[in-house]
């Protein structure tokens, strides 16, 4: 880690998934870092090797031709997410003689001692002296961003009924995990119809992972009920929905979406999909046990909780435990 008074910088190194980049962006912003996104992949035969083998070599020399240049000059911090990216942070730390601070988000597939610090949620069960444990996923949703989004979207949604329920859709994430099946979509649509019948307003936004048939069905449902549904054109109203809604429905497939919804302190209802992921199921069960979330059952309820502020807390611990900043 450098000791210069110049503004510090970071590379956010991941396979490029939006949720991954958002988590790393959150901690970079909380630390006040200038940052660049570096979406990477390994070339064959290295793409077939286990992560520990990648970390024992020079992972920087194993990247595909399509990956961005990761040669010197390096930043002050390498923030990696995705188990196969942890070896890149290890390589930058070693080859820089320790000048690059290697931070990994979520469970790494290499020994945590090879990294300077790890930030991982409790359901990842990562243990080590350099591990910072969180309740929820890191994210970049802040009160200031929500206030700015509210100012933009409030006039556009002034006619929507109250209480206003935001509907945040994820999607299928692998045949062994969650699937947005016709049955799951039908259940969600029925629940939204019940909300509308009870006098609630609806505003919906899909994600990139939302299956097209599911998106079309649920967008049509919400519009038929007099609500707002984003069709993918123009600016994504996601932050506006979080800012202005009285309650939030999220599909259960995404730890990131649930974590961002919980940052608002508003009632968060989790809509079930088909299938299961042990890791995500453990997270969702913990959120319900803490009183943060409730299952979506087609009705609006109100409850309060202290929203977890793990991103800011992790940034403070990095500064206190490791002298960062």
How is this structure best described in words?
The chain has 325 residues and is of the alpha/beta class. The chain is built from 10 helices and 14 strands. It has helices spanning 18-30, 51-56, 86-95, 143-153, 182-197, 212-224, 238-244, 255-262, 278-289, 310-322; strands spanning 9-14, 34-39, 77-81, 101-105, 117-121, 131-134, 164-168, 178-179, 201-205, 228-229, 247-251, 268-271, 274-275, 293-295. The strands form 3 sheets. A 6-stranded parallel β-sheet has the order 2-1-3-4-5-6. A 6-stranded parallel β-sheet has the order 10-9-7-11-12-14, sandwiched between helices. A two-stranded antiparallel sheet has the order 8-13. The mean pLDDT is 93.
């Amino acid at each position: 880690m450098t000791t210069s008074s110049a503004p510090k910088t970071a590379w956010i190194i991941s396979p490029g998934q939006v949720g991954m980049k958002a988590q790393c962006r959150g901690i970079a912003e909380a630390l006040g870092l200038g940052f660049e996104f570096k979406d990477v992949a390994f070339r064959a035969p290295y793409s077939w090797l286990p992560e520990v083998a990648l970390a024992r070599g020079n992972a920087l020399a194993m990247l595909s031709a399509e990956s961005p240049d990761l040669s010197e000059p390096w930043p002050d911090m390498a923030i990696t997410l995705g188990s196969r990216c942890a070896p890149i942070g290890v390589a930058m730390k070693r080859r820089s003689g320790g000048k690059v601070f290697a931070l990994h988000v979520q469970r790494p597939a290499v020994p945590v001692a090879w990294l300077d610090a790890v930030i991982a949620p409790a359901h990842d069960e990562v243990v080590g002296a350099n591990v910072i444990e969180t309740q929820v996923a890191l994210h970049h949703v802040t009160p200031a961003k929500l206030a700015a989004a509210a100012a933009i979207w409030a006039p556009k949604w002034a006619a929507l009924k109250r209480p206003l329920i935001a509907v945040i859709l994820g999607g299928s994430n692998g045949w062994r995990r969650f699937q947005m099946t016709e049955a799951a979509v039908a259940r969600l649509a029925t629940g939204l119809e019940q909300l509308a019948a009870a006098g609630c307003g609806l505003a919906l936004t899909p994600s990139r992972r939302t299956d097209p048939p599911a998106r079309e069905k649920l967008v049509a449902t919400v519009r038929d009920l007099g609500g707002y549904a984003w069709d993918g054109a123009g600016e994504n109203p996601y932050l506006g929905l979080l800012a202005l809604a009285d309650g939030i429905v999220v599909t259960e497939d995404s730890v990131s979406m649930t974590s961002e919804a919980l940052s608002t302190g508003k009632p968060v209802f989790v809509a079930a999909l088909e299938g299961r992921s042990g890791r995500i199921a453990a997270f969702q069960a913990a959120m319900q046990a803490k009183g943060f979330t409730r299952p979506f059952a087609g009705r609006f309820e109100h409850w309060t909780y202290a929203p977890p502020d793990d991103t800011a807390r992790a940034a403070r611990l990095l500064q206190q435990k490791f002298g960062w900043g």
